[in-house]
Amino acid sequence: MNSLPSLYISHGSPMTALQPGLTGKRLTELAALLPKPRAIVMASAHWLSRKPQVGASIAPETIHDFRGFPSPLYELRYPAPGSPELAEQVAQLLDRANLPAVINHDRGLDHGAWVPLRLLYPDADIPVVPITIQPELGPAHQYAVGQALSSLRDEGVLVIGSGSITHNLHDFGAGYSDERKAPYVLPFIEWIEQRLAAGDVDALLDYRRHAPGAERAHPTDEHLLPLFVALGVAGPKAHAQRIDAGIDLGFLAMDIYRFN
Fold first, then answer.
1. 34-87 confidence digits (pLDDT tens)
2. Which of 72, 128, 179, 240 has the lowest CB atom count within 10 Å?
3. What single DSSP character describes residue 165?
4. Are 144 and 150 in contact (CB under 8 A)?
5. Quick one: pLDDT band at residue 172, thresholds 50, 70, 90?
6. Which residues on neighbouring strands pair with residue 163, listed in sequence order?
7. How far is CA 187 from CA 165, 177, 182, 249, in A?
8. Percent helix, percent strand, percent coil in the chain, to nearest 5
9. CA dihedral defined by 175, 177, 182, 183, rounded to 10 degrees?
10. Mean pLDDT within 106-119
11. Mapping DSSP to helix (H, G, I), strand (E, B) and coil, where does residue 104 land?
């Protein structure tokens, strides 16, 4: 099998599962272009830990880690199998990179994992191994995590980072909409696209100092950090393809990136 790309997906609100919109269309199109992976490693912005953890459940549960949404959303399931064997391999790769990981046999799939996976691979027939994000350790650490897992691309494993290109939930109720977008959104997503196209990893890892509107786009890091996992997997010479999936609510940019 040829090397698989790595992906970064902006997963948006849990409601994307019921109202997939442009994101669903783009993920369906993307899945049609990719060789079907034998397994998926998923780094979601909604599973955080101080040190790396790897999910090794045989049958990961669907976690409804949100409140106040319509009841049909809580009835959805994504019954993909897990892979304890792959989880052990992932942990070993991280250990070899001096990023010691803990195996977690109980963790399921949070909405940052199962919502986009339902749209990308609706048959839920591909084993999924979730891994954690370490928000206190920053972009360079997550890039190193991705680098440690880069060999998986040659083994039919698709590594996905799931977060959001912009993610400022304080802007709910600020009056932004499709017609009135938050002023920081377009400059920020354009800067990310330009730096990825230029292969400027140093600037990306220091995005808070260099990117316009970084503090508004990401009051906290966790939803951008999965991007650095996917970028690390692909390496510094990767070709980054931006897939525009719109801007939800005027402030949540839904960009998807494919790294080859």
1. 999 999 999 999 999 999 999 999 999 999 999 999 999 999 999 999 999 999
2. 179
3. S
4. no
5. confident
6. 10
7. 12, 17, 10, 17
8. 40, 20, 40
9. -110
10. 98
11. strand
127, 114, 254, 5: CA torsion to nearest 10: 0
22-32: burial string, b at 16+ Cβ within 10 Å, e else: ebbebbeebee
Is 172 or 234 the better-scoring residue by pLDDT? 234
Contact yes or no for 42/6 (Cβ under 8 A):
no
User: Letter for the amino acid at 225?
Assistant: L
Q: What is the mean pLDDT of the chain?
A: 97
Helices (H), 136-244: 138-148, 185-198, 201-205, 207-210, 214-217, 225-234
Query: Radius of gyration of the chain from Cα atoms?
Result: 17
